[in-house]
Amino acid sequence: MSSGQSATLNTAQRLPVRRLGDHDLPLPGYATKAAAGLDLRAAEAHRIAPGERRLIGTGFAIALPSNCEGQIRPRSGMAAEHGVTVLNAPGTVDADYRGEVKVLLVNLGQEVVEINRGDRIAQLVVGSVSRLDLVEVEALPETTRGVGGFGSTGR
Fold first, then answer.
1. What string of DSSP letters covers 29-42?
2. Vertex 94, ends 89 and 97: CA angle to 5°?
3. Which distant-in-sequence residues (6+ apart) come within 8 Å of 140 by Cβ?
4. CA distance linking residue 95 with residue 110, whole number of Å
5. What separation in angstroms does the CA of 51 have from each of 90, 111, 112?
6. DSSP alpha helices (H): ranges in the chain?
7. Where are the beta strands (DSSP E) in the chain?
8. Sheet of strand 29-30: strand arrangement
9. From first to last of its 155 residues, what are the pLDDT tens digits of the chain?
């Protein structure tokens, strides 16, 4: 390889996915080559009234690597068009969880929202996790910010 060329490395890991039940929904997938999140689809149809929350199954279970977590995040189109978002965003899927991936949606809009079977309802972003050993101390190191909380760094 010459000095002007760059190598493209395939660093993709495999994510085992188990279909739950007898259905023909597509596997969760990336909508584009550079998408960060896997699209999650509703396994069943639902109606969500204004102010209502609904736990919606995807029809799949996954086995994340032990150093990863899944973050369930809202789809921007659903939020912008209908006021529907993920209530506990981002929801966390732990690496040792093997049950159905579910999405907790809430309708913050003014109208009833129809979710059809197969509709894209959220996205799953897989990220690395660091686990630390906690050490109890008498005092923490000083910083410029100190104990300043919400809004303390300006607007």
1. EESSTT-SSEEEE-
2. 120
3. none
4. 36
5. 19, 10, 9
6. 76-82
7. 17-19, 29-30, 38-41, 46-48, 53-62, 68-73, 84-86, 91-93, 100-107, 113-115, 120-128
8. 29-30, 38-41, 120-128, 68-73, 91-93
9. 444 444 444 456 899 999 999 999 999 999 999 999 999 999 999 999 999 999 999 999 999 999 999 999 999 999 999 999 999 999 999 999 999 999 999 999 999 999 999 999 999 999 999 999 999 999 999 998 888 777 767 66
- Tokens 């690496």 found at: 95
- Residue 45's nearest CA partner among 125, 92, 112, 124 is 112
Which tokens is 114 given? 């129809």
150 CB-contact burial (10 Å; exposed 0-12 / middle 13-18 / buried 19+)? exposed
- Give 18's strand partners: 61
**Residue 72's beta-bridge partner residues?**
91, 124
Question: Which residues neighbour 137 within 8 Å (Cβ) at sequence distance 6 or greater?
Answer: none
Domains of the chain listed by start with CATH number: 37-128 (2.70.40.10)
